[in-house]
Amino acid sequence: MTLGPRIVIAGAGAVGCFIGGLLAGGGRRVTLLARPRIQAEIRTHGLTLTDFGGMAQYLSPDDLTVAGDPACLRHADIVLVTVKSRDTAAMAAQIAQHAAPGTQVISLQNGVGNRAVLAEALPGFDLRAGLVPFNVVPLGQGGYHRASDGDLVIEDGSIDLTGPLTVPGLATVTREDIEALQWGKFLINQFNALNALSGLPLQKQLHDRDWRRLMADQWAEAHAVLRAGKIQPKLTAPVPPRLMPALLRLPTPLFTRIAARMLQIDPQARTSMAQDLAARRPTEIDALQGEVQRMGEALGRATPVTDMVLRVMEWAALANEGLPHLPVAALRAEIATGRKR
């Protein structure tokens, strides 16, 4: 019998455990490289994977290979990098130290700078960008719930990796325009901070026109910065990025009809940044709004909405009290205050 490639999930948190668990359940040879807390949870409870469509899959501790030593990378044929952006350089150094040149390394991370960080540390590796269109909610005791849908998307390459990375419950596709799609996901991820500041489930927030108007203003601002920088983002959804603000600003009854696919998410789902802020963990705000602000400054473009989000997220992190549950009117007032400074 021919054994398939050995896959290491480099940074098995919520997304990594969900993807790695589905791959393992589909018969792939998977090692979850994880922090001690996640290791202990999996070794005690295994993994229970669910989604908003009714999927449910349990893998016992005996079904899973979990590691804390990056030396497990030595045997990898494919490495899926799922660490937060702030940890990319450290993980790249571990891959460089332990994995063999030529290993396929795929970044499945938020933000747009991770591939470059990996490339600098990993010459001679088959490096590809990718994106995860769905969000995953950690439920505790090895439970992970996929709260929205979509296929994994990875950069096309000389070796087809869609087969090894496609199993029941998880489809993977390749695209040549991955950079444009990553910038599209970057725009979508600008919503993460507003969701965290609201304290609301994302579906409930999207049903509130005042919140959508603020989301639209943030999107339009970030999109204008990207276009000024000669960046043309694309979305996996059939909506041109330039039309997203108009869609968000529609009256709610019309929005819910036109954007029905956007609303096909678990009613209790929150963004990863909301999960991090609630758990008092560092967020990825610098890789998202921080990048928009830096690009705006370099291009001489004002970014008042982005500036406000960065300020208020910093205050929320310093308060260390979890989700702040701020009303949209308070954020609008802070934009106006920031313009007067």
Automatic annotation (TrEMBL):
Residues 7-156 form the Ketopantoate reductase N-terminal domain. Residues 177-312 form the Ketopantoate reductase C-terminal domain. It is an enzyme of class 1 (oxidoreductase). The keyword Transmembrane applies. SUPFAM superfamilies: 6-phosphogluconate dehydrogenase C-terminal domain-like, NAD(P)-binding Rossmann-fold domains. It catalyses: (R)-pantoate + NADP(+) = 2-dehydropantoate + NADPH + H(+). GO terms for cellular component: cytoplasm. Catalyzes the NADPH-dependent reduction of ketopantoate into pantoic acid. NCBIfam families: apbA_panE, PRK08229.1. This is 2-dehydropantoate 2-reductase.
